[in-house]
Structure to design on (144 residues):
């Protein structure tokens, strides 16, 4: 694994912890972390699945943000509700799954040593709701 991917994973896990603590203290006291490190969703509360995506940009940097379409398929297959939390440089945003508020296409990245291309669901920023500006995706990499 290359340095970019290692740093991204490190930052992602740190930011998942931030969001977990925020949600546990402010919205879902009974929230549970997924037992497997690479589970389809990061957290759950009964029939609600929660995913956290850490972003290295501000919320207004792009017109859309994306999640793996496999996550959407999972919600639909098992009739779960879903919340997607996006931790940007300027705050925590949420999108509550709505089948009318996304489109799909191939996407991904190639800067981490391999072609990471797959089908994604793209969500317009207008569907994201600011939850708090008190936590951001900034992580100190000094420990890395």
């Amino acid at each position: 694994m290359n340095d970019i991917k290692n740093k991204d994973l490190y930052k992602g896990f740190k930011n998942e912890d931030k969001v977990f603590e925020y949600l546990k203290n402010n919205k879902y006291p009974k929230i549970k972390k997924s037992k497997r490190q690479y589970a389809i969703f990061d957290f759950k509360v009964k029939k609600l699945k929660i995913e956290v995506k850490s972003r290295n940009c501000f919320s207004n940097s792009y017109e859309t943000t994306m999640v793996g379409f496999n996550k959407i398929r999972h919600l639909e297959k098992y009739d779960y509700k879903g919340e997607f939390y996006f931790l940007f440089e300027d705050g925590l945003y949420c999108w509550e799954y709505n089948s009318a508020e996304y489109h799909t296409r191939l996407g991904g990245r190639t800067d981490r040593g391999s072609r990471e291309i797959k089908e994604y669901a793209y969500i317009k920023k207008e569907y994201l709701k600011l939850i708090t500006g008190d936590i951001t995706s900034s992580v100190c990499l000094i420990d890395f």
About this structure: The radius of gyration is 15 Å. The longest strand covers residues 116-124. The mean pLDDT is 92. Residues 3-132 form a domain with the Trna Endonuclease; Chain: A, domain 1 fold (CATH 3.40.1350).
